[in-house]
Amino acid sequence: MPVTVTRTTVTTTMSSSTGLGSPTIVGTPRALTQPLGLLRLLQLLCTCVAFSLVASVGAWTGPMGNWSMFTWCFCFSVTLIILIVELGGLQARFPLSWRNFPITYACYAALFCLSSSIIYPTTYVQFLSHGRSRDHAIAATAFSCIACVAYATEVAWTRARPGEITGYMATVPGLLKVLETFVACIIFAFISDVSLYQRKPALEWCVAVYAICFILAAVAILLNLGECTNMLPIPFPTFLSGLALLSVLLYATALVLWPLYQFDEKYGGEPWRSRDVSCSRSHNYYVCSWDRRLAVAILTAINLLAYVADLVHSAHLVFVRV
């Protein structure tokens, strides 16, 4: 049976209320006229306009441009699928848990659009010469920001509240799992250059930490989306607490070792950006090695904080009896 989180013993059923936090009416065009349906139409419009503006002038060269184009196309496609499922009343036939999937996707989409809204203008748009391409790129960034706000609003509307029975992914620990895996993916993008850690056991350990914790968090998400939590040999809340504790310990070591071996001269690191040859020359659509190292260090700290918060909330689900 799927994992649910509740603070009461009252069971609830799907409601057709028009409240902001309530599910939209399904299987009818009226689904689009409810607040959540209108919000998803806004998401669909903004992501469609964003990638259309960029594609019309070919303003997506390089890895950063490719990432942004992928983000907008992916978010548009999945949002369209969600609308079709709700319009057709096909939730029961959907292969994943409909109590967990929409909010999980909305959280990922908000983070995707947020990253594109930051990365695209800072690493691509500013290097474009004034003209039609630059104007389209700036407009696409604006629509990306609006889409980010729209997805974040959906998460705020549909997340779990005290007294509600809901899927695990709508709770704070579930949403933190999404953040943890997303940040790990960004870290993997920055360490795609193996020269940043190759032949340094301490740094290779950090890479292993990022991979192990990402896999564990992804497994927890997939178990919920597939409603397979009963397959575990231990209670799922206990599994989550153990996972969070292990991840906190592993990330704590990475938070110490990564900056130490990347920025301390005693351990072969480079403390000054100006000394990095790859950062001294002008580069379009490229992040130099020193900036990559710094970004990974910052993201490691962010993920450690996320795992600490996850541990606190997961332990609360295990030990608090209400």
From TrEMBL:
<comment type="similarity">
    <text>Belongs to the MAL family.</text>
</comment>
<dbReference type="InterPro" id="IPR008253">
    <property type="entry name" value="Marvel"/>
</dbReference>
<feature type="compositionally biased region" description="Low complexity">
    <location>
        <begin position="1"/>
        <end position="18"/>
    </location>
</feature>
<keyword id="KW-0812">Transmembrane</keyword>
<protein>
    <submittedName>
        <fullName>Myeloid-associated differentiation marker</fullName>
    </submittedName>
</protein>
<feature type="region of interest" description="Disordered">
    <location>
        <begin position="1"/>
        <end position="22"/>
    </location>
</feature>
<dbReference type="InterPro" id="IPR047123">
    <property type="entry name" value="MYADM-like"/>
</dbReference>
<feature type="transmembrane region" description="Helical">
    <location>
        <begin position="102"/>
        <end position="125"/>
    </location>
</feature>
<feature type="domain" description="MARVEL">
    <location>
        <begin position="31"/>
        <end position="163"/>
    </location>
</feature>
<feature type="domain" description="MARVEL">
    <location>
        <begin position="168"/>
        <end position="319"/>
    </location>
</feature>
<keyword id="KW-1133">Transmembrane helix</keyword>
<feature type="transmembrane region" description="Helical">
    <location>
        <begin position="67"/>
        <end position="90"/>
    </location>
</feature>
<feature type="transmembrane region" description="Helical">
    <location>
        <begin position="178"/>
        <end position="196"/>
    </location>
</feature>
<feature type="transmembrane region" description="Helical">
    <location>
        <begin position="238"/>
        <end position="261"/>
    </location>
</feature>
<feature type="transmembrane region" description="Helical">
    <location>
        <begin position="38"/>
        <end position="61"/>
    </location>
</feature>
<dbReference type="GO" id="GO:0005886">
    <property type="term" value="C:plasma membrane"/>
</dbReference>
<dbReference type="Pfam" id="PF01284">
    <property type="entry name" value="MARVEL"/>
</dbReference>
<dbReference type="GO" id="GO:0005911">
    <property type="term" value="C:cell-cell junction"/>
</dbReference>
<feature type="transmembrane region" description="Helical">
    <location>
        <begin position="294"/>
        <end position="320"/>
    </location>
</feature>
<keyword id="KW-0677">Repeat</keyword>
<feature type="transmembrane region" description="Helical">
    <location>
        <begin position="202"/>
        <end position="226"/>
    </location>
</feature>
<feature type="transmembrane region" description="Helical">
    <location>
        <begin position="137"/>
        <end position="157"/>
    </location>
</feature>
<keyword id="KW-0472">Membrane</keyword>
